[in-house]
Amino acid sequence: MSKPTVIDLFCGAGGLSLGFQNAGYRVVLGSDIDSTFGSTFLESHDGSAFLAKSAYDLTDDDILARTGIYKGQLDVLVGGPPCQGYSVYNHGRGEGDPRAGLFREYLRIVKHVQPRWLVMENVTGLTSISGGRLLKDILSEIRAAGYPDVDFHIFKAEEYGVPQERRRIVFIANRLGIPVSFPDRTHGGGKRDHVTVWDAIGDLPPIFEPREFESGAAYACAPQNDFQRLLRRGSSHVSNHCCPKLSKVNIDRVKHIPQGGSWRDIPFDLLPAGMQRAKRSDHTKRYGRPKPDGLSCTILTKCDIHWGAYIHPIQNRAFSVREAARLQSFPDSVVFHGSMTEQFVQVGNAVPPLLAKAIADHIALQSVDAIRHAA
């Protein structure tokens, strides 16, 4: 029996489609405007093709001709239209942001390709745009594209084995007459224990120079838990284990921050001028050092200690690219290409592969059940 097929639009490094690949799907194509992302994507997606093209210029002929798949034959079209237009971190967000209309380009491709299923991911901030009208418009337009069975769910990544507090909205729809449902959580609240920061990164070697392991490094020890064993599968060494260089004043600041601490632990005279005027209730994650036995804060497109709790739990430095990737549940076999800045962008923009796999497994199960009931 042939594997079900997947195409990933706005793919970036391909975290969403990697989850589907790990669930047994065949990823035939990824597309993104940035060719650097394509280098990462192609190495981690067996037998896939990549199109470096803007979504506005992407046509159904591009997709169908490149994959050899006819209209209506694709099993799943996945994608995460760039979310910055909706993000709670973008205070000018809204429908006027040109990036906020990219979901319509995704739906344009849906109409031409007619996949059996579609999966579209975004940030939860879009639920509040225009008083919820944008959310209603998205659901309406998906139905109008020929997918009457559609629903959305706000996922908590940590409930699916990801060592990070991360909230994302995922729309799932199909044209097969199958009522949409969502995978049950696997971690927390009486299920398996959450995967912690140290569960995720404790086997990685310490870094004493920011770029000392840029070309690769040996693991610090044997895998200590199931999460490390899973992510190390197929990898003999650590790649992308490099971190931003901190200025002397930032090194002096982080030395004062204990595990679970933040900017409030920095002596007043060492605080940046703007933060000396801040209320104690503000900037709760800035200059944060997570507890080893806790969850990471949301991994963004750079682990800048000014932005959040991105200080290593033990060392006085920021997280490395590989540590951020571990906290996103990327396998160590995925090598991120480009500059360090581009690597962090690829990691931070991705859907955690473990969350994506849970969604992929659930869709596969629903499809099998529908075939069984129809027989």
- Topology-level CATH name of one domain: Rossmann fold
Question: Would you tell me the structural class of the helices and strands?
Answer: alpha/beta
Strand order in the sheet with the most strands: 3-2-1-4-5-7-6
Strand content: 5-15%
How widely separated are the two ends?
17 Å
Q: Main beta sheet: strand number and arrangement?
A: 7 strands, mixed
Summarize the amount of helix as a percent range.
25-40%
For this structure, what is the CATH class of one domain?
Alpha Beta
Q: What would you say the CATH architecture of one domain is?
A: 3-Layer(aba) Sandwich
Treating each run of at least 4 consecutive H or I residues as one helix, how many helices?
A: 12
- Average pLDDT number: 91
Describe this structure in words.
The protein has 375 residues and is α/β, with parallel strands linked by helices. It has a domain at 5-188 and 352-374: 3-Layer(aba) Sandwich (Rossmann fold), CATH 3.40.50.150. Helix content is 30%, strand content 11%. It has helices spanning 15-22, 35-44, 60-67, 102-113, 133-144, 197-201, 226-232, 248-254, 273-276, 321-327, 340-349, 353-374; strands at 5-9, 26-32, 49-52, 76-79, 117-122, 149-156, 167-174. Strands 3-2-1-4-5-7-6 form a seven-stranded mixed β-sheet, with helices on both faces. Strand 1, helix 1 (15-22) and strand 2 (26-32) form a beta-alpha-beta unit. Helix 1 (15-22) crosses helix 12 (353-374). The chain is globular, with a radius of gyration of 21 Å. Mean pLDDT is 91; it is low at 84-99.
